[in-house]
Amino acid sequence: MNRVFIKTYGCQMNERDSEAVAAMLRARGYRIVGREDECDILLLNTCSVRDLAEQKAISKAGSASARKKTDARFVLGILGCMAQNRGAALLDQLPDVDLIVGTQKFHQVPGYLDNLRAAREAGIPLGNTIVDVAGEAGSQNAIRDHVLGEHPVTAFVSIQQGCDMACTFCIVPKTRGDERSRPMDDIVGECRGLVGCGVREITLLGQIVTSYGRHDRAAPGGATPFVQLLERVHAIDGLARIRFTSPHPIGFKRDLVEAYARLPKLCSCIHLPLQSGSNRMLRAMHRPYTRERYREIVDALRQVRPDLHFSTDVIVGFPGETEEDFAQTREFFEAVNYDMAYVFKYSIRSGTAAADMPGQVPEETKEARNQVLLRLLERNSLRRNQALVGTVQEVLIEGPDRKGLRFMGRTSGNRTVHFACGADRIGALAPVRIERATSSVLYGSLA
Question: 53 by DSSP, 3-state: which?
Answer without folding.
Answer: helix
